[in-house]
Hints:
149 residues, mainly alpha, two-stranded antiparallel sheet, 4 helices, 4% strand, elongated, disordered C terminus
Amino acid sequence: MTSQLGFDVEIKLVDALLLLLKREQASLIKVDVDTMEGLLNEKAQVLQDLSSNTQSRYKSVAALGFDADEQGLAKWLAAQDSGIQASWGRFHALLDQAKELNRLNGILINKHFNLNQNVLNTLGRPSSNQFYGPNGQSSSGSGFYNTQA
């Protein structure tokens, strides 16, 4: 369990995640797709490691007679010294920072998506005042094709 070391491993993992999220944000601002693609794999690994640590933490508190969930962990933490509790608080503060960075990155991704969608929509529409009829000749925007050859 983490009681001997506090939550040092989890803190290091969230620090790594924060660094990746900051790099992701910089890449989103620069629209550096190649870098963003590489960061996805790194983020996936860190998130997988965090998930594994969470599962191990729950197993450890269950082995100590607490429920293997957040409530069991909260009861276990209440019985720990202030150093462990402070370490847990730091871990949660870093998680909050990561959630906020992830939220901001999501906003940037949505802006890029909407911009790209608008460009694609514009490219897919004919000009409102210029149409081509069946004979390949252009006609003005009345909405009807010029069928004279």
